[in-house]
Specification:
The complex is a heterodimer of chains A (240) and B (636). Chain A is 2% helix and 50% strand. With 240 residues, chain A is mainly beta. A seven-stranded antiparallel β-sheet of chain A has the order 8-7-6-5-4-3-18, with no helix packed on it. A six-stranded mixed β-sheet of chain A has the order 1-2-17-16-15-14. Chain A has a five-stranded antiparallel β-sheet with strand order 9-10-11-12-13, with no helix packed on it. The two termini of chain A are 20 Å apart. Chain B starts with a helix and ends in a 14-residue tail after the last strand. In chain B, helix 8 packs parallel to helix 9. With 636 residues, chain B is α+β, with helices and mostly antiparallel strands. Chain B is built from 14 helices and 34 strands. In chain B, the strands form six sheets. In chain B, strands 1, 2, 3, 5, 6, 9, 12, 14, 15, 32 and 33 form an eleven-stranded mixed β-sheet that branches. In chain B, strands 19, 20, 21, 22, 23, 24 and 25 form a seven-stranded mixed β-sheet that branches. A four-stranded mixed β-sheet of chain B has the order 7-8-4-34, with no helix packed on it. The radius of gyration of chain B is 26 Å and the shape is globular. In chain B, 46% of the residues are buried. The chains are: A mainly beta (240), B alpha+beta (636). Chains A and B meet through strand 8 and strand 9 of A and strand 31 of B. Strand 9 (97-101) of chain A pairs antiparallel with strand 31 of chain B.
Chain lengths: 240, 636
Amino acid sequence: PHFIIHVPGKNDTICFNIDEKPGTVLRLIQDPVTGITVTGQIIGDKGSGPSSGTGKTYFGKLGITNAWMDFRIEVTTEKIILGNGEALSTFRWLDTVTVTQTGLSVTINRKKNMVVSFGDGVKFVIVLHQVWKKHPVHQDFLGFYVVDSHRMSAQTHGLLGQFFRPFDFEVFDIRPGSDPTKPDATMVVKSHQLTVTRGSQKDYRKDTSVGTKVLCWFVHNNGEGLIDGVHTDYIVPSLF
Amino acid sequence: LRLLGKRSLREGVVDGIEVYSTKISCKVTSRFAHNVVTTRAVNRADKAKEVSFDVELPKTAFITNFTLTIDGVTYPGNIKEKEVAQKQYEKAVSQGKTAGLVKASGRKLEKFTVSVNVAAGSKVTFELTYEELLKRHKGKYEMYIKVQPKQLVRHFEIDAHIFEPQGISMLDAEASFITNDLLGSALTKSFSGKKGHVSFKPSLDQQRSCPTCTDSLLNGDFTIVYDVNRESPGNVQVVNGYFVHFFAPQGLPVVPKNIVFVIDISGSMAGRKIHQTRDALLKILDDMKEDDYLNFILFSTHVTTWKDSLVQATPANLEEARMFVKNIRDEGMTNINDGLLRGVHMLKDARERHLVPERSTSILIMLTDGDANTGESRPQKIQENVRNAIGGKFPLYNLGFGNNLNYNFLETMALENNGLARRIYEDSDANLQLQGFYEEVANPLLTNVEVEYPENAILDLTKNNYPHFYDGSEIVVAGRLVDSDMNNFKADVKGHGALNDLTFTEEVDMKEMDAALKEQGYIFGNYIERLWAYLTIEQLLERRKNAFGEEKENLTAQALELSLKYHFVTPLTSMVVTKPEDNEDQTSIADKPGEEATSVTPSMAYLRRIGLGRPVAQGKALGASSFSDVPLVDGD
């Protein structure tokens, strides 16, 4: 999957990929104060095992829990299961439904996206990317966007959560790269000096089929140097 | 010679009458069933013979048409206001003419009977049409057809076509009389996409009760069950400016219940009834979930309770409850008032003292087999007391065990309190009936369901708020669009779930709808308008039961107007059939009997005295079912 980190103070964007085997579960957000955790399970293309397919990976399943509310949401490309214990509600991406309870609102917009809000300071959007059912290679996948995180604590961590608090970076020495359309540069971030490449990713929040092009500095090697530790530190055994 | 030989061996001729064709044609479009029962017979005797046509149809159905055709001349049925029809009917009676009637018949059915004299060599065709909205119970729609021809029929056929725009997910047909032979060749059932088809077409030989018998084995229930695909929880269909909205979400957790059983243990419950009640309660206890709360209140002359307040359905409490239930014994008289008021108080108290979960629903179920005869015994006062005590806070379900009770009283009281009444028939399966009722109301997935449409866009809406949505059921709302050319509209369904509040939104795109519905033309036309009319009349009649004075008059007028406009035989209308007999015009009348059709009403007693209630068994029974020795009653 691709990660896009917009840095408001710099008015610039950093991006990176995490390349792991399908089935791997990554911790995206973990906040011990609000109790919110978000995890994502990787899928590949159709029929892709560790050694097949195009090598491209996506999120096929997402898990959102709020430990203090004893509430969890499991989102797959087929259905959305939310609740706790045995009292689970199951919805499909064909439903248009809003589920509300104290401190939580979940809205599923038929075949498009779902919006999860915890109170008025945490809002996530999950986008359903549907492909042609009979496509020989590609399959449906999910996009995860953090729209509002201002109520998340400073202790929030995870592949995305670590970037909720302000951080700084510098990019200099922009130079031609191996691809003439994508210059390389040097980035200093979190006390590391990295070679980055100017590239682009797509933000699908507004338009789930075409998306909006976002220019970003691409950090190679699974975000090494940008993320705290290494990407394998974020692998967890299961969605919940 | 050969021809003569054949004539002498003609199959299916009984007492000179040959029923050569009976066809039950069912067309179901979006749960709305349009059934036509056609029987054709010929009098092969050398003198005039009387033949009768009997059809048993569901109590929930409305007859919409009946025609009698003799030698090519058709005598249609006319639907009139009941009083007008009655006058015509009484006039006919006073002139010594006879009549056909619809009577209550068993638990689910009512019987339509008409008879006519047919001249030697003449042919007669009877055609009865009725319509009903199939209701979803326990995850399926059920269409029930009683099959009981009294003789072999050369061309016997049940032909059901089902069209469901949502697509059919399962379809099955069963007959209580089915044999392997019939199963293999006479019965076919198939479904694909939006269309389903069931055909039952036994040959003459297949109809015989034994290879050399001349009597028919076709005697029993023929049931078609099906369900539809539910890609989304709601489905809205619009045709010609009328719409219907079906709502049945799946995958929601059950809302915990706080349930109080108020059980009549008076002396009249002695024997089998109390035994069956105990059996049913024990089964119900097995189905209780740990999140539920319960209690038992027993009433006879006095009121006793199992526990002072509601208790959680923990394994230990359930075990104790089983012991309590096993020891229920009959005694004393019937104090309905105090029993119910204790139950109401217990449920309210549990809520006020936060003894039960915040997100739970309260239900009061009363079972009685007789009228109140001690304590407050005036029905209206009991109704008033209960209504005031409940204050609309939770539903009351009344189960009337057997026939020796005032069912109207129980029904009115239940309807006044957002519940419903059900008669439990005093048969060997009474315990299963009790248990079945409990299962219907045991799994609420949503409470306080409200269906909302854009303001100023909708007219003539049927009931759009329901206290509960039960698992396996379906909420149906129909209405009329202000502007039949509008391109789209949105419907919201709001309800409280076990954990949270939910709002389901259904966007209706008319253009999409038009395209989807084009292919259904072959089934039958303005079905949504008729469905809306059926549902509206049904709900007006239900509200009418609880209304008084001017409100009752208004409800009656509305229901009557629609019944006449859409040709439904409802409790407010009658169908008059004028037929020729003995060279003299004769009038028959079809009324819809009510649930209280358990005794002869004064007007019927009058009619019987003057010889109207003639023993129709003297005729030959044709059609889908036959006449048997039922009491001559009419519940008008």
